[in-house]
Amino acid sequence: MTDPLAPLLDLDGVAAAVKSAQDAIFAVHRHPANLRGGPATAAEASVRAARASAAIDGADPEIPADAEVTDPLLAGALRVAETLEALLPTWRRAPAQALARMHVLAAADLVSDAEALGRPRAGTGARLELLTQLLTGATSAPGPLQVAVVHGELLALQPFGTADGVVARAAARLTMVATGTDPKSLTVPEVACLRRVTRYREAAAAFATGEPDGVRDWLLFWCDAMEKGAREARGIAEAAG
């Protein structure tokens, strides 16, 4: 069978951008602080990622001094972040189940009907199934490319109707780990997306069109965000000594 993502590597500049992103991420994994104590960097990266992810969708990213988070979107993003490591085996085996669980956590304070939590909207099943196939072996494309497609597809599909952005970005983090792109989950591309949030939304909308130029625009944007996320990880590592 033909790899469905292989043609994306032929889009102008995409293969080089994918390699550049992967090289930057691997380099930060070799930083001395991460060789000694990667979990500390990963823990800080997880919190920064959750805060930035919530802020992209309009939440207040500040965590109060008493740690009592009242913003429902931020609270949900933090709950998802705390659970990602435990969800990794499910993500590798049954991505749809992991997506449902992430939505339950992300939208618990946003949805009045508890039965709607974790339930994809009508009409999204076929595309979610295709995404599941990609995640469980239908492609051998480089990790950064798989991450970009998962992220972009979930943003385009909006499968749950609430907290979809938080779920999409969390799914991207899981895919970065599962594909070996960022095996220790050290990087924070979400911060780069927040700093250029208008451009992020434009690129995501371009991907959603399905047109080659739009898809290319998103892939290049996301690869650049991963590179910037690696620089953010380097800053965390250097601050930790």
Can you describe this structure?
- The protein is globular, with a radius of gyration of 17 Å.
- 70% of the residues lie in helices and 0% in strands.
- By secondary structure, it is mainly alpha-helical.
- It has helices spanning 14-29, 32-56, 72-93, 95-107, 125-138, 143-157, 164-178, 189-195, 197-209, 212-240.
- Helix 8 (189-195) packs across helix 10 (212-240).
Q: How many strands in all? A: 0
What class would the helix/strand composition place it in? mainly alpha
Compute the average pLDDT. 95
Major sheet characteristics: none
What is the helix tally?
A: 10
Helix content: over 70%
* DSSP strand content: under 5%
Write down the overall geometry.
Answer: globular
Radius of gyration: 17 Å
Q: pLDDT below 50 for ≥5 consecutive residues: which ranges? A: none
Order of helices and strands: HHHHHHHHHH
State the end-to-end CA separation.
48 Å
